[in-house]
Structure formats: C-alpha cells, structure tokens
Write a structure and sequence with these properties.
Bound molecules: nicotinamide-adenine-dinucleotide, zinc ion
Strand content: 15-25%
Order of helices and strands: EEHEHEHEHEHEEEHHHHHHHEEH
Distance between the termini: 52 Å
Oligomer: single chain
Length: 379
C-alpha cells in the first residue's frame, strides 16, 4: 500500500501539527511511515496493553524493525486502571533506564487507555518525544487518537492529570478491528452515531458531502460486519469531523463541547454503573437517548428523529437503558461534569437530523423524566 492509497487528514494547531493516515492494511507500512517522517530516528519505544500486544504487537514491531528501527516493547495490563501515575512512573523507569534519547519515538499501540497513557509519557519524558498513535479500537480511531488530549486518572477523578500534545503521526488501520471484542466494537459505534447526530452543527461544514446519519442507516449491514470499503470510509469521515473541531478549538474551550452530545447523562451513568457495568460508548448511547428525550419534551426534536437515533443504536448492538440508578443518584455526577459552567448545565440537544444545539437552563423535572426513561426496566 503506498501512501497515496491512504487517506490523509492533517490538523495544524499553534502547538503542533498532526497527520492522520487512514487505510486498511496500513500497519504493515508503519516503519516506513515513521522513518519518512523522522529520518534520523533509531529507537522506537512501543507501548501496548497485553490484549493488544497479543493480537497486533508482533506485526507492529516487525513493521518498525523492517525500517531499521530498534524496537523496545512495554506491555501494561489491559484496562482503565493502567491510566495511572504509577504506570507512568514504570514507563519513565523503563525508558530512562534504557537510555531513551531526544530523537527516539514513542509508539502507542492500543485503545484509548494506551493512547492516553503513552501520549502523556511522550509529552513529558525528556520534555517531549515524537509520538505516533496507532489506535486499535474503534473509539480510539474516531475519537481519542485524534486531537492531542493525553493523560491519566487520579483518585480524585478521571483524566485529571494530563497535557495537550498533538501526535505528529497517527496511523489508522481499520483491519485491526477484526480482533476487537464485539462489545468494545459496539461501544465505538456509539461515538460514530454521535457524529452522525451532530455533524451539521460542527465547524467548517461541507454542503456537498454525503450526510453521515443516512449513510450509517444505509450501510449498517456492512458496517456491523466491518466490511470494506464501508468501514474505512466511515472512520475517515469521523476523523475528518473531529479534525474540523480540533482545528478551531485545539484546547477545548468552545465548539469541542458539541462532541459531548450524549455525554452529560452518559458520564453520570458510567460513573454510577462502576467498573465493568457500562463501557463508555454504551453509556454514551444511553446518554444520547436521554438527551433526545429531553429535546423531544421541549419540542426541540421531532419524535421521528428520536426513533431514527434509537434504530441505529439497536442496529449497532448498543443498549437503550441501564436499569437501576435513580435520577437523584445521577445528578451529582452530572453537576460535576466538565460542561457544568457557573453551575448551569449545558445540554447538547438534537434539533433536526444531523443538528444539535447547546441549551442552558433545562428544567430539572424535564431532565428527571428523560433519566427515568433510560433507567427503568423495560415494560
Ligand atoms: N484522549 C481523548 O481525547 C479521549 C477521548 C475519548 C476517550 N478517551 C479515553 O479512552 C479510554 C477508553 O478507550 P477504549 O474504549 O479504546 O478502551 P481500551 O483502551 O481500554 O480498549 C478496550 C479493550 O479492548 C482491548 N483491545 C483494544 N484493541 C484491541 C484489538 N484490536 N483487538 C483485541 N483487543 C483489543 C483492550 O485490551 C481493552 O481490553 C478511556 O480511558 C477514555 O478516558 C480519551
Ligand atoms: Zn466519548
């Protein structure tokens, strides 16, 4: 596969540029892509988790070695618990103990956990090393590997320690999704459906382009079985949409909030459900239903659009409810959510196919009704 056969999306920001190459089979080109970008590099520090290492580590290491790089591999336990300062410390020990130098490279091979962790290490070790993101989950491909957010968790909360650090190179190989557990894959589709719901509200719209929402409806059968070229094309669109947002809002101060559609109630459900209860994407899917419910109650959103969203959620194997928590249990988490500025929750609500608006001051009773809808057992 030549570079010309890969799609490229480039993000230029004041703190650095990011080039994202997308193509099924591109992992085999990793070494060449890296040495083209950094001709003087000699050593790659490949960071992964145990599941990803088993599935794709040898192929990634072989591709890097074939380009003449020395490859050192570190594997962290799979799971959110690896996004910790303790793990960051172990990675510093490994790299600095192994004489890492300023011209070395950090390769993050994995989902969002590895990407956030290795990205933070790359941002801070020796005041910043070249970073290559190789996302292996659908969520990481369409979301976390793009935009430069890195970091780890703290006892006081998720993602509280981190840095914005643009990866100069991101290599997206949708073929890697073939080994992803089905539940993780579905969770990634939730973020894709989210893009379909918000696309028209994002900066830099392209009027002639095929809208994502009906596209997902038409291609759903191909997408759920990861058929090509449908899968790569949709992933590419989502990356492009995230890039349009990051270009105008690299430090997440404004329009990036639109990407939080479904995340206000979603984050609360994720927190209440606890470890293993709900995957992030599953919580977002349920959160989108809650947001659409609020919008419908406020007469902002036609019920046909709510139903279109839910049909997609079901088609991609995602849950529509999480039975158990009461609205009262969810409120503290929603208030704590990042989008709560000056005490007023900002809801991202759907208003038309592919359109959302930010609405402040939604009546709590309206929110409670929507939360009750997604937390009661199916009748
Ligand atoms: N930086 C950002 O902008 C951003 C955005 C969204 C989410 N995040 C973060 O991303 C994290 C979640 O990421 P995630 O959903 O990718 O989860 P993850 O990284 O934990 O991966 C999910 C599971 O799938 C396994 N896996 C990954 N790729 C695989 C493959 N190709 N084959 C087989 N198994 C594979 C992993 O080992 C893990 O068990 C959270 O920590 C979240 O905070 C960051
Ligand atoms: Zn998300």
């Amino acid at each position: 596969m030549s570079q010309a056969e890969m799609d490229a999306v480039t993000i230029e920001t004041p703190t650095g540029d990011s080039r994202i190459l997308i193509g099924a089979g591109s992992l085999a080109e990793l070494g060449r892509l890296v040495t083209e970008r950094w001709p003087g590099a000699r050593t790659a520090w490949l960071i992964s988790d145990d599941a990803v290492q088993r599935a794709h580590g040898p192929a990634a290491a072989a591709a890097l070695a074939a380009a003449g790089l020395t490859v050192n591999v570190f594997t962290v336990p799979a799971g959110e618990a690896s996004k910790s300062l303790a793990e960051v410390g172990r990675l510093y020990d490994w790299m600095l103990g192994g004489n890492a130098g300023r011209s070395d490279l950090v390769v993050a091979l994995g989902g969002g956990v590895v990407g956030d962790l290795a990205g933070f290490v790359a941002a801070t070790c020796l005041r910043g090393l070249a970073l290559i993101q190789v996302p292996t989950t659908l969520l990481a491909m369409v979301d976390s590997s793009v935009g430069g957010k890195t970091g780890v968790n703290h006892a006081a909360g998720k993602n509280l320690i981190g840095a914005f650090y643009q990866p100069p190179l991101v290599v997206v190989d949708p073929a890697l999704l073939g080994t992803l557990p089905p539940r993780e894959l579905a969770a990634g589709w939730a973020e894709v459906i989210k893009y379909g719901m918000i696309e028209g509200a994002l900066p830099d719209p392209r009027p002639g382009e095929r809208p994502l929402l009906p596209w997902l409806e038409t291609d759903a059968d191909d997408l759920v079985r990861l058929a090509e070229p449908a899968t790569t094309a949709v992933i590419r669109r989502c990356i492009d949409l995230k890039a349009r947002v990051v270009r105008v809002d690299p430090l997440e101060q404004g329009p990036r909030a639109l990407l939080n559609y479904g995340h206000t109630a979603g984050h609360a459900l994720e927190a209440v459900a606890g470890y293993g209860g709900l995957l992030h994407g599953e919580a977002v899917a349920i959160g989108m239903r809650a947001a659409a419910g609020i919008a419908a109650t406020l007469d902002l959103c036609p019920s046909a659009l709510v139903e279109r969203q839910q049909a997609l959620v079901r088609r991609f194997g995602l849950p529509e409810r999480f039975a158990g928590p009461t609205p009262a249990e969810l409120w503290p988490y929603m208030r704590r959510d990042k989008k709560a500025t000056a005490g007023a929750l900002r809801w991202v609500l759907p208003t038309a196919p592919g359109h959302v608006e930010i609405v402040r001051g939604v009546d709590e009773a309206v929110v409670d009704r929507a939360l009750a809808l997604v937390t009661t057992r199916d009748a």
